[in-house]
Amino acid sequence: MATNVKREVDVKESQLPNLPEVPNHVRHRVFRHSGMGDNNERLANLGAVILPVIVTEWLMDTKPNATSGDLTIQRSLRVDKKVISKWSRLYGLPDHLVCAANEVNVRASVAAQCQVFYAYIGAVRQTEDEDEEQKEYGWTAVCAFVRQILEVTPIQ
């Protein structure tokens, strides 16, 4: 079992991979806070489910000898709300949130920061991959994006 685990994420903005493109007809929903109609909640629900799956696969690939318990601990550290909110802020996603009220407070909240990141992940997943034969709808793109973030954001 892992001991002495530190929870700080150290990453420079210049190391982050570029955000994958999201079509405009989906993009507007990513940034609509839950207090508004046609908002980002459904996309965020999708992203919140997808992210731990991708993190688990990445951990299994990068730590082939880790025990199930170690993988669980490492995954929980990487999908922690403090980590997700930091990624969201590094990309400036909260700055684009459209809110019904209290925009400054909403954008500063960890919950909204996480939600907009999850919504972006969900939106990428809903985007068709370039390889039309696969019909994976963004799975390749979202996996590559999250794996690149994981590579440059070690848990210290």
TrEMBL record:
Q: Which residues form the RNase III domain?
A: 39-129
Under Gene Ontology molecular function, one entry of this record is: ribonuclease III activity
Q: Which domain of life is it from?
A: Eukaryota
Annotated TM spans: none
Fetch the PROSITE patterns from UniProt: RNASE_3_2 (PS50142)
Task: Give the signal peptide, or none.
Answer: none
What InterPro entries would the database entry show?
RNase_III_dom, RNase_III_sf
State the Gene Ontology BP annotations: RNA processing
Protein name, as recorded: RNase III domain-containing protein
